Amino acid sequence: MTITIYHNPACGTSRNTLAMIRQSGEEPEVIEYLKTPPPRETLVDLMKRMGIGPRELLRQKGTPYADHDLGNPKWTDDQLIDFMLEYPILINRPIVVTPLGVKLCRPSEAVLDILPNPHIGAFTKEDGEVVPARRKTA
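The structure assignment produced for this chain is given below.
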């Protein structure tokens, strides 16, 4: 089974998501998207599979979002994608791809919705927040 995470190791949400995947018994392919940004076709495909557009994928905090006035409706989807390719920090993270779907995992426990084995037991995030164990359904 192949699971891929578009990961930023400096991001706590991304680190928590990666840890949850590993606690589920899977070792994902980790793509540090700041070092290896996805090509345009891949980025467009990920958004399509998540059912979101570029505006929903843009990260505002700690990025050049405000410097380029990216909240302005004058920017087309193609132009926003161009900005994300030029400045990968604008791509919100983590994005996780599994056989069950593709999801922007914010909050990190959103990954449980697309993991083949979401029953990872209780999980404690880096900030001390406890994600309760999921109940198995019959």
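Interim note for the steering committee: Residues 12-23 form the longest helix (12 residues). The two ends are 23 Å apart (CA to CA).
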